[in-house]
From TrEMBL:
This is Uncharacterized protein. The keyword Signal applies. Residues 1-30 form the signal peptide. The keyword Signal applies. It comes from Actinomadura keratinilytica. Keywords: Signal. InterPro entries: Gal_Oxase/kelch_b-propeller. SUPFAM superfamilies: Galactose oxidase, central domain.
Length: 389
């Protein structure tokens, strides 16, 4: 059931005119002026809130999830794109805390996970069947979840660990029950599935947080995937933050190269691409880029990728294709503040959604959705913020 209080909107024509004015052509020799992606939805909650994950199912179906924080505690947040607008959707009572990540195999099989935190937050999975949300599973408090992959109604994976001595685990749902699946090669933290017998997951080898690992599930077991030489020393090592497989011959792997300098850890962004035969390290970043890591990566629908980088000194979005980096920004309602946290490409299209939060006139940070296709007649933009009283 959708809440009565929906998103604020702005005429699409106004947004298109603003976009055209900002995304102009730079003079010869000057840094190019980045495109600016307009807002398409902004929440109207009275407590601080943010979207942290977005799942793009199709041109008329998408979900985004996060957390609402108030004096009364935290609660999960879900908003839905129905092909016309984004609106908040009610979740089961008593779920508690926020949602950290989600995935879907179709509009009638959407899963959202709380993740847990250090044995404090409740750990659960919610499931949308096309009509309503239900609590599909609860884990003990000793579990912390890091990611999940939804391949079908009877094929769902969750990855995480126990905070006690039981260590790293994966869990698999077969349509009837959840079962633990040992991962003896290491801790698997983030995953992406092409199909049931081709799941890639990144993490680190058992017993060593400095030995980065890429693993594959072939339908029977997890095995390590060979990678080019990467630093694996105690003072110079690699951390993988995510993997995305467009196909078996188009795989993107991103993370950080870490160097220890005394008590400090220096992080440098790492991006690898597999073309079906070899892994290539992608560099040649824009001269001003001081990139340390990325929150998320998604295909652009044209053979390239979009990145959501971290930090306040970087553009909110980076694009790479055919050996060339460019930048884009997301439009902010009330000045320079705002946060883009996740990005997702709509399958078989160039439409991309970005989610995060921005401060509105009341000073409250509210959930926000941006898109690179705001000129679409199906996408309406929010009205400017109301003046503070």
């Amino acid at each position: 059931m959708s809440f009565g209080r929906l998103t604020r909107r702005l005429s699409a024509l106004t947004g298109i005119a603003a976009l055209a004015a900002v995304a102009g052509t730079a003079p010869a020799g000057a840094d190019p002026v980045p495109d600016v992606w307009p807002l398409v939805a902004v929440g109207d909650e009275t407590a601080h809130n943010s979207l942290q994950d977005v799942v793009a199912i199709g041109p008329r179906s998408a979900w985004a999830f996060g957390r609402i924080s108030s004096d009364g505690g935290d609660e999960p947040l879900a908003v839905r794109w129905n092909g016309r607008s984004w609106a908040r959707v009610a979740l089961p009572a008593g779920a508690g805390k926020g949602i950290r990540f989600a995935d879907a195999s179709g509009p009638r099989n959407v899963w959202a996970f709380s993740g847990g935190y250090a044995g404090i937050d409740p750990v659960y999975a919610l499931r949308w069947n096309g009509r309503s949300w239900t609590v599909a599973h609860r884990w003990p408090h000793q579990v912390v979840l890091d990611d999940a992959e939804v391949i079908g109604p009877r094929d769902v994976w969750a990855f995480g660990s126990y905070t006690n001595l039981l260590g790293d685990r994966a869990w698999h749902y077969d349509g009837r029950r959840w079962a633990e699946v040992p991962t003896p090669i290491g801790a698997l933290k983030h995953a992406h599935a092409l199909r049931a017998d081709h799941i890639l997951a990144v993490g680190h080898r058992s017993g060593s947080s400095t030995e980065a690992l890429l693993a594959r599930w072939n339908g029977r077991t997890w095995t390590e995937v060979e990678l080019p030489d990467l630093p694996r020393e105690t003072d110079h090592y690699t951390i993988f933050d995510g993997v995305h497989a467009v196909s078996e011959r188009d795989v993107w792997l991103y993370g950080r190269e870490v160097r220890r300098d005394g008590d400090r850890n220096m992080h440098e962004f790492l991006l690898l691409h597999y073309d079906g035969s070899t892994w290539q390290r992608i560099g040649d970043f824009l001269p001003w880029m001081r990139l340390t890591y990325a929150y998320a990566l998604t295909p652009d629908g044209q053979g390239g990728i979009w990145l959501v980088p971290n930090g306040n000194d970087w553009p909110e979005l980076l694009h790479y294709r055919d050996g060339r980096w460019t930048q884009a920004k997301v439009d902010l309602l009330t000045g320079p503040n705002g946060a883009a946290l996740d990005i997702a490409n709509v399958p078989h299209s160039r439409l991309v959604w970005v989610v995060g939060s921005t401060p509105v006139s009341s000073g409250t940070w509210n959930w926000t959705v941006w898109s690179n296709k705001a000129s679409s007649p199906h996408i309406r933009q929010p009205r400017p913020p109301r003046p503070a009283k």
